[in-house]
Design goal:
Structural class: mainly alpha
Distance between the termini: 42 Å
Low-confidence stretches: 1-6
Radius of gyration: 18 Å
Number of strands: 0
Shape: elongated
Number of domains: 1
Length: about 80
Amino acid sequence: MSDTEAEPEEKSLEARLSRLDEILAKMESDDVELEDALRLFEEGVAHVREAERVLSTAELRVAELLASGETRPLESDEG
């Protein structure tokens, strides 16, 4: 398995979205065999589910912070 085909759990959200773009491009091409298309589809579904979990967790955390009144100044990369 190549680095771009690592298990979904090992990837950041950004890497996951990038891999989904790759999968979509491959599946849209005319030269994908059925077995490869099914494997890509399965991998894509796993990435989407994990991305949804990550985003849901972040959304809950934001809601908790807003409800508790916890705030802190944003740190800027600009100097």
